[in-house]
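Hello again, I could really use a second opinion on something today. Take your time with it, there's no hurry, and the full record follows here:

___
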Amino acid sequence: MGRRDRIRARPRALVHVHISEVIMEATLSHEKLDAYQVAVQFLAWSTHLVRSLPRGHAALADQLRRASLSIPLSIAEAVGKTAGPDRARYFAYARGSSLECAAILDACNVLGLIDKDASSPGKQLLVRLASMLSKLCR
């Protein structure tokens, strides 16, 4: 891939989406978790990244789209479980999806689809998220 063909995907600066902007109704228990709020922020950020990826990388874009969506959904499902082991399993699923997203960002860097600087805000969110989810898995 030549330098001219390389798209330096720069999603908008870190998209700060506070959960109160997304949800207008009564707050549910999962919406109060910081991990859920960070997951929604990453989902918003990754959506901008997916839209900026060059043609020919639909599989990679689809994988990132599905993995980033899986994180907040798994967190919400974990909170809905009453048994401790069930909750831990779903938090672990969310953690796995966050690590998968980090690997996808690494792959995008290696393939020259995005700059390391462009992926930095997303990686920062994922590091924070993985740390929170690791604690919730216990």
In short: The chain has one domain: 29-137.
